[in-house]
Q: What sequence folds into this?
């Protein structure tokens, strides 16, 4: 058995038993790269920041509540202090902000709280997995992660952060889409990279459950991207949530906001497709979009970095039309595809 076998035969089924699944609100993300692979955000001289190494095999997150990471080693490699510390550098990064780290080689499992590596919270061998499942569930299941965020009903007048009122208006700003990767001609990379969209409005306030809610309105894009988002059924406004008690003003400890959006466009719906004008959709189009924004407030501006992951599903495409459409779009249209990327943002806030 090798490391891949441990991931797919042992770890992934375990995550499913704990209540996590890919593309859900209790989401599994795999091998997520860091946009800014150093310890802090927002430094004027980032070269002085200590580099953080590693890339966790799995991030398990309850969107807008919290997350934990899993680091998988091959069975031939013991779980050493160095291995745990390497996993910790990734889990502790501001873009991740994981509460726990599970390190396993398939034979041994060790669960640590981030920032407390002296003694594992749980440690057990594979043959003890069944009797250890309930203690593990009580620490890292979706319900446990929600409880960990310690959300309570709060006074509506509670401030959102240092020098921030209890409610804020979003009065402007800008989103910049940077490096992206796409495996479908329906979402060409060149239509996204370098795009800048204005933030035109919105609000930030606290929910009754304690989470911070941000409603963000995005301005219309140039023609090609506007047609692309219309075809996908993407929205011009977004609902973001954070489990943090306050919006951070410290770049070393930023706030994480998350959004999960799903939409489907049925066959026959009339849309404007890039380069094709208004057409009746010759296939059904499904979109699942995950966005994470990591930032802090500086002089009335919430600024930081973002990561975007999209899943695209195509259904009901007539085989007779496929060659024509693929020739028009310049590539094969897969039934299931994805695109992802990173970017940066500045959102202006006002009382």
A:
């Amino acid at each position: 058995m090798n490391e891949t076998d441990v991931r797919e035969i042992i770890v992934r089924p375990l995550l499913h038993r704990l209540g996590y699944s890919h593309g859900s609100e209790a989401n599994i993300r795999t091998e997520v790269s860091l946009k800014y692979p150093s310890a802090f955000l927002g430094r004027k001289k980032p070269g002085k920041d200590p580099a953080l190494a590693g890339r966790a095999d799995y991030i398990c997150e309850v969107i807008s509540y919290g997350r934990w990471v899993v680091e998988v080693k091959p069975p031939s490699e013991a779980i050493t202090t160095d291995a745990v510390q390497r996993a910790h550098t990734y889990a502790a990064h501001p873009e991740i902000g994981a509460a726990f780290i599970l390190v396993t080689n398939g034979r041994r499992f060790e669960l640590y709280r981030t920032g407390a590596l002296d003694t594992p919270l749980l440690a057990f061998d594979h043959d003890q997995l069944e009797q250890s499942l309930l203690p593990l569930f009580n620490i890292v299941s979706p319900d446990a992660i929600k409880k960990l965020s310690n959300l309570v009903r709060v006074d509506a007048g509670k401030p959102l952060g240092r020098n921030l009122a209890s409610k804020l208006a979003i009065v402007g700003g800008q989103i910049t889409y940077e490096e992206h990767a796409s495996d479908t001609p329906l979402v060409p990379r060149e239509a996204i990279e370098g795009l800048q969209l204005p933030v035109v409005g919105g609000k930030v306030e606290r929910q009754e459950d304690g989470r911070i809610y941000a409603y963000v309105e995005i301005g219309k894009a140039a023609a090609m991207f506007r047609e692309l988002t219309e075809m996908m059924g993407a929205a011009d406004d977004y609902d973001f949530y954070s489990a943090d008690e306050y919006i951070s003003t410290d770049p070393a400890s930023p706030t994480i906001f998350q959004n999960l959006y799903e939409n489907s466009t049925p066959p026959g719906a009339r849309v404007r497709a890039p380069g094709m004008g208004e057409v009746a959709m010759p296939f059904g189009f499904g979109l699942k979009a995950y966005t994470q924004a990591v930032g802090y407030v500086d002089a009335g501006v919430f600024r930081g970095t973002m990561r975007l992951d999209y899943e695209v599903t195509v259904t009901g495409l007539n085989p007779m039309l496929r060659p024509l459409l693929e020739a028009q779009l310049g590539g094969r249209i897969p039934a299931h595809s994805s695109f992802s990327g990173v970017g940066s943002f500045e959102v202006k806030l006002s009382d």
Remarks:
- The two ends are 58 Å apart (CA to CA).
- The longest strand covers residues 167-182.
- The chain has two domains: 3-148, 167-350.
- Confidence is low (pLDDT under 50) at residues 39-44.
